[in-house]
Design brief:
The complex is a heterodimer. Chain A is mainly beta. Chain A has strands spanning 4-7, 10-13, 19-25, 32-38, 45-51, 57-58, 67-73, 76-81, 90-98, 101-104, 108-112. In chain A, strands 2, 4, 5, 6, 9, 10 and 11 form a 7-stranded mixed sheet that branches. By secondary structure, chain B is mainly β. Chain B has strands at residues 9-13, 18-23, 31-38, 45-50, 55-56, 61-64, 70-75, 84-92, 107-112. The chains are: A mainly beta, B mainly beta.
Chain lengths: 113, 113
């Protein structure tokens, strides 16, 4: 299957700072990428859908000014958590759409102290 | 997208077949059945999908009932590495970008030696 990478795999940041997470499709071009987050012992929740070259579409309850998404190319999407708070600590997962499937990255564990 | 119902947990002996059921009684004619799994602290992994015919690949088999109201994912010879949460998802669309995946709670499969 197709491969999606995320960087970093783990990050610890202080409250009030911003952190950027990169999502790359390594062997396919993803016109659409999705960002999910997953709290402990919970299922994945979609945060936003991004199409290359256009603004992301955010799910209800997700603040677009806090979670900045940039999908500048067919192989790269970034999620920036701005002014992070401890409640933003979570497992962030991206996926790229290709054909009828979505391929997921390995996830980024964010801890805000 | 139609809702799915899965048992919260199942056990399976190593080397035996694991049969994971999924009910999707409100599935529409153009909705596909997808299966993903998530091993602890990793991103979801695509397993298989189907519309109405049974499907088989190197990972698993998917059996869909004739009325399409339920399906079963079969792992023919479960190993300890198959321990994961398995998600059954129904989704409209031919292309990966046509609609995100909505994750329920899934079935936690524990493969025991």
């Amino acid at each position: 299957g197709a491969v999606v990478s995320q960087h970093p795999s783990r990050v610890i940041c202080k409250s009030g700072t911003s952190v950027k997470i990169e999502c790359r499709s390594l062997d396919f071009q993803a016109t659409t990428m999705f960002w999910y987050r997953q709290f402990p012992k919970k299922s994945l929740m979609l945060m936003a859908t991004s199409n290359e070259g256009s603004k992301a579409t955010y799910e209800q309850g997700v603040e677009k000014d806090k979670f900045l998404i940039n999908h500048a190319s067919l192989t790269l999407s970034t999620l920036t958590v701005t002014s992070a708070h401890p409640e933003d600590s979570s497992f962030y997962i991206c996926s790229g759409a290709w054909g009828r499937e979505q391929y997921f990255g390995p996830g980024t564990r964010l801890t805000v102290t | 997208d139609a809702k799915t119902t899965q048992p919260p947990s199942m056990d399976c002996a190593e080397g035996r077949a694991a049969n994971l059921p999924c009910n999707h009684s409100t599935i529409s004619g153009n909705e596909y059945v997808y299966w993903y799994r998530q091993i602890h602290s990793q991103g979801p992994q695509y397993i298989i999908h189907g519309l109405k015919n049974n499907e088989t690949n190197e990972m698993a088999s998917l059996i869909i009932t004739e009325d399409r109201k339920s399906s079963t994912l079969i792992l023919p010879h479960a190993t300890l590495r198959d321990t994961a949460v398995y998600y059954c998802i129904v989704r409209v669309g031919m292309g990966g970008s046509q609609g995100n995946l909505i994750f329920g709670k899934g079935t936690k499969l524990s493969v025991k030696p």
